[in-house]
Design a protein that fits this description.
Elements: E1 6-12, E2 16-24, H1 31-40, E3 47-53, E4 56-64, H2 68-76, E5 85-98, H3 103-115, E6 120-125, E7 130-135, H4 139-149, E8 151-152, E9 159-160
Parallel strand pairs: 1-8, 1-9
Antiparallel strand pairs: 1-5, 2-4, 2-5, 3-4, 5-7, 6-7
Helix pairs in contact: 3-4
């Protein structure tokens, strides 16, 4: 008999674009520069993770889908970034909120997603959340799948944020000479 694991909820994001920064070394770590570009144009990053291994440092983040073209324009204008960034459109975040959970929650959720051929593009965890980056078209089905694997606290249904806190996204003018 499989023990029930309780979670406090499931959250589904809106449409996003996954941005990956590739092959940085400690001397050319691009994430601070990238974050500076995004902050300078007030583009939010609702997801960010990094990975350090022998071939270098890589980072992944998400921007709202409607900011993909602006992000590409800003990044392509920076010589340090050009050629080191890739984009995967039409993704979303599925976040589980563990309730005094163990590693079993991660194992069970990842196994359930892979068994149903849900493509996990990225993931991140913390003490308060486990977040998967998935194809946007699969978010609702993945949420229902995970809902069937766990006991939701108080019979909550997966939810979408009713509001999003945003900065006023803008393209900063180039400095005048």
């Amino acid at each position: 008999m499989m023990t029930e694991i309780q979670i406090n909820g499931l959250k589904i994001s809106g449409a996003l674009c996954l941005v990956r920064l590739h092959h940085s070394t400690p001397d050319t770590f691009r994430l601070p520069a990238f974050c500076g570009i995004m902050a300078g144009s007030q583009i939010n990053l609702p997801f960010i993770s990094t990975d350090h291994h022998s071939s270098g440092i890589q980072a992944a983040c998400c921007v709202e889908a409607k900011h993909q073209m602006l992000t590409q324009k800003l990044v392509d204008a920076d010589p340090m970034m050009k050629g080191h960034v890739s984009y995967i459109p039409d993704v979303g975040l599925l976040t589980l909120f563990p309730h005094q959970s163990s590693l079993k929650l991660f194992v069970r959720s990842l196994r359930a997603l892979s068994t149903e051929s849900v493509r996990v593009l990225e993931m991140a965890s913390s003490i308060g959340a486990l977040t998967y980056v998935l194809d946007y078209a699969q978010l609702d089905a993945a949420a229902e799948l995970l809902r069937s694997c766990f006991k939701l606290d108080g019979n909550h249904s997966p939810f979408r944020a009713e509001f999003v806190v945003r900065q006023g996204t803008q393209l900063k003018p180039e400095p005048m000479e």
